[in-house]
Input
Amino acid sequence: MMPNIKYKEEKELPLNALLTLYNDAGWTAYSKNPEMLVNAIKNSHFVLTAWVNNELIGLIRVVGDGFTIAYIQDVLVLKAYKRRKIGTTLMTKTLEKFKHIRQKVLLTDDTIETRSFYETLGFKACDKGKLVAFIKI
Output
């Protein structure tokens, strides 16, 4: 049975819920510095969350200017809730909100599952087009 999932636009989130979500994804670069994580969420252009009762089960975060570029920084769903279209719903609601922006960008791990997820949503990998991606970490 599918739980009743509520989606909310919000940036003020309980730290313990954020740490649970980011640790579940293995994103310790975020969770090892809780103050930075809270500030990153608060200063994002847009944050959409998914909840079951009082449990944060998913989040999408966008940075950018809101006019020319929307950079999808984070998309997370608790492992216990994956494969229930929560990530897809977070993405489709976000893409609808930013449909007026031509350039929607994200950088993510290169796995078959990840490629399939984003390609299903209309994204194209830079290695299959006329673009090149650069990163400095």
In short: Helices lie at 15-24, 28-31, 34-42, 86-97, 112-120. The chain has a mean pLDDT of 91.
